[in-house]
Amino acid sequence: MANIHVLRPGFYTTLQDTGRHGVAQYGVPQSGVMDSFSSGKSNLLLNNNLNAAVLEILMTGPILEFSSETYIAVCGAQFDILLNDQPISLAKRYRVQKGDVLKFGKLHKGLRAYLAVSGGFQSESVLGSRSQYPGITTAAKLEKGMSLAITDEVVTAKALSRVNFEDTQLWDPAIEVYPGPEFALLSTEEQQQLFERSFTLSSKSNRMAIPFEETLNNTLKGITTGPVLPGTVQLTPSGTLIALMRDCQVSGGYPRVLQLSTFGICQLAQKRPGEAISFKRKALDIGAISR
User: How many domains does the chain have?
Assistant: First the structure.
């Protein structure tokens, strides 16, 4: 099997697919790509399965050397990207040759980029997923000197007929949310504050959760520990809002006041600590659920 050699791992680069499903009863986090919109685009460009493993690249990117021919595509955050010291673009398919070197340089917009290869990365699969997570997979993130397995069969990527890669909404600071299970327990004034105020991402943000700097006047009591999932927004006793992300726990005892939409998770995943966002209430399409 062919491989890609990690010359530099970047700040926090991980292998991710769409995550582990059906194992929450064992306390196992779902994990998976933080921005499924961008990772999905990168896989679509190569005619990969949408669950094919990709590299999730955070803030500073890796330097990678290819041992064989393949196709690549990068989507998401806007980095300077060089293939053999020549700039390449986001959201385009490129063929690489044996010995080619891919470098990620300065980050200009967003926070996370996604590198797909033809056929997907062939790393170890644990509990039905290749997503790296401490204590579950052998490695929690990329390290210098690693070899990343890829298929040695060069798959000719067919031209896509019509795919809209417009991502303007991804950068919108208004994040899509639904009311959470305990939303109705908030006073009318507290409910209004959720949608009228801006909230700043904390420097403590990570793949598990994104806390916000501003606090609300919280009059709610704690709840009996209940299920949570990626996108659940909890309200702590101190009034801090915490948006749970892909590596979050499977249960919690703080009121669940909001739930990010799938696209809302993608939007928030591209915001940097210190950026301000607002919550935009999204209508629940009951008809779509029943279908």
Answer: 2
Mean pLDDT calculated for residue range 260-278: 98
* Residue where a domain stops, chosen among 136, 166, 196: 166
157 and 196 in a single domain? The answer is: no
**Do 140 and 159 belong together in one domain?**
yes
Last residue of a domain, one of 125, 146, 166: 166
φ, ψ at 219 (rounded to 5°): -105, 0
The model's pTM is: 0.93
Residue closest to 233 by CA, chosen among 241, 225, 223: 241
Confidence class for position 290, pLDDT limits 50, 70, 90 = very low
Per-residue tokens: 239: 């009034």
DSSP secondary structure of 5-64:
EEEE--SS-EEE-S---S-GGGT------S-HHHHHHHHHHTT--TTS-EEEEESS--EE
Residue type, 125: S
